[in-house]
Each structure stands twice: as structure tokens, then as C-alpha cells.
Design brief:
The chain is an alpha+beta fold. The chain is built from 3 helices and 10 strands. The chain has one domain. Helices cover 23% and strands 41% of the residues. The protein has a 6-stranded mixed beta sheet with strand order 5-6-2-1-8-9. The longest helix is centred in the middle third of the chain and has 15 residues. It is globular.
Length: 164
């Protein structure tokens, strides 16, 4: 039809006007060291907004004035917005550090030692307070078998049965 705009073009144009907000979390239960190893991919510019709001100060993720302070703020934020529960008990997590990529960064955490879990409750509220459209994909691997859940506003946790 002459003069009409195609649907694919409209979808691409709309996606450029309305950014999407998503993070990816991979959790792996490591049988060897009996820990849950966590890697999270988050757009660093969105995390700048969340850290700035949480700490009431401007944050520059790529060129921080005080890298140790940024690391401390990041650790505090990630540990507040990520929690794991095994048999109803909170599992202690430790922040290990991060690596920056072009438009995102990988953040690493690890749990204390635990016996092989059969069920895990995952709480992930990353960026939801600052971006109501935020969605967080969580993949949990045990014995190379993946289980997944999606958190978002109004649904920030879920239970995964690992031995099914």
C-alpha cells in the first residue's frame, strides 16, 4: 500500500522511543565448593540512576571520583536487592566485584557454603524502585539443569524446585 508505514518499522521506531529495562542473573550451584555463584548483567547507566537515588549523590559509574566508595555503594545496593532463602533461612551473600562492558556491566556475588539445595526462594528487586517497567530474568543451574523465573514490579520473588 503506497504511503503506508510497515509494522516492523513502527516496532523498531517505538522501541527506540521507549527503552526496555531488563537485567540478567545467572546462579550456579557449584558442587565442588558448595556455593551458589552469581553473575548479574545490568545496564550500568540504569544502575547509576539507582545508586544516585539510593545514596542521594551523583554517581559516575565509568569514571568514579572514589572507586572504593562506588564499590561499597554497589555492594550495598546489590546485597539489598538480591536475597536467597534455603528452607526459609536467609543465605548470606558476598559481593566479589564487577567488570564493565560497552553498555552493561557484570556483577559477581557468591553465597556462603551450603549443602546441595532442593528448593530456593529468590528475591530480586534490582532497579524496580527506579524503573517500574524493569524486569529481571533469573536463571538457576544445578547439575547443569536450568530453572528460571522473572521478577518485576509486584512480583519480586519466586520459588524454584531444583530436583524436579
Amino acid at each position: 500500500m503506497p504511503g503506508s508505514i510497515s509494522l516492523p518499522f513502527l516496532l523498531i521506531f517505538w522501541s527506540l522511543l521507549h527503552p526496555f529495562y531488563i537485567s540478567l542473573t545467572d546462579m550456579v550451584y557449584n558442587e565442588g565448593n558448595q556455593r551458589i555463584e552469581i553473575a548479574q548483567k545490568i545496564f550500568w547507566d540504569d544502575l547509576e540512576v539507582a545508586l544516585s537515588n539510593a545514596n542521594k549523590t551523583a554517581v559516575n559509574f565509568l569514571s568514579p571520583e572514589d572507586p572504593a566508595l562506588l564499590d561499597s555503594m554497589t555492594a550495598r545496593y546489590l546485597l539489598r536487592h538480591n536475597r536467597l532463602f534455603i528452607d526459609g533461612d536467609t543465605l548470606r551473600l558476598h559481593y566479589l566485584g564487577h567488570e564493565v562492558e560497552a553498555d552493561a556491566a557484570w556483577f559477581y556475588l557468591e553465597s556462603e557454603q551450603i549443602p546441595s539445595p532442593k528448593e530456593v526462594t529468590i528475591y530480586n528487586s534490582l532497579l524496580i524502585d527506579d524503573f517500574p517497567e524493569q524486569q529481571n530474568i533469573v536463571n538457576f543451574y544445578k547439575n547443569r539443569k536450568p530453572k528460571s523465573l522473572l521478577t518485576r514490579k509486584g512480583k519480586t520473588e519466586g520459588v524454584l524446585l531444583l530436583d524436579e
